[in-house]
């Protein structure tokens, strides 16, 4: 598990919003929904070492659950009411990185900034930005009796907690 690779993947997921409940905004008689803005909270999680998908739950301006498909700098969030992109670039600030050489337990924490863009259907016109806290725990594989943090871990868990100011 390479900390930088995981942090970038996690950051990509940082703004992922979920699918499930859909967009909780009313439509007007013209079929257009009223403009709205507010704080949105995102919780993402995976147990896959090289995650390309995260489970996402969003709450705040809207509540939904779905998946975030990770990209190197842009993720695609799929929800029942539509999709949008999370542009997280590649700037991740690693806060801490630890490997216990006796137990091979690895922990890391990082932060990343992101922007929301390119919404479809219920998320058409979405914009906003925020910050994510990325954390992960894993057990590294052993190679010749030593912990190998660059090999795929035995097990891992990655979580992202993000907050953004969103305009719809």
What do you see in this structure?
The chain has 168 residues and is mainly beta. It has one helix at 3-13, and strands spanning 37-46, 53-60, 64-69, 74-79, 82-87, 92-99, 105-117, 127-139, 141-143, 146-148, 155-167. The strands form two sheets. It has an eight-stranded antiparallel β-barrel. A hairpin with a 2-residue loop joins strand 9 and strand 10. The radius of gyration is 17 Å and the shape is elongated. The model is unreliable at 1-32 (pLDDT under 50).
The major beta sheet can be summarized as: 8 strands, antiparallel, barrel
Rg to the nearest angstrom?
17 Å
Give the structural class: mainly beta
Helix percent reads under 10%
First CA to last CA: what distance? Answer: 37 Å
Number of strands: 11
Low-confidence stretches: 1-32
Physical arrangement of strands within the biggest beta sheet: 1-2-3-4-5-7-8-11
| Overall spatial form | elongated
* Mean pLDDT figure: 83
The helix tally amounts to: 1
Secondary-structure element sequence? HEEEEEEEEEEE
What portion of the residues fall into strands of 2 or more residues?
Answer: over 45%
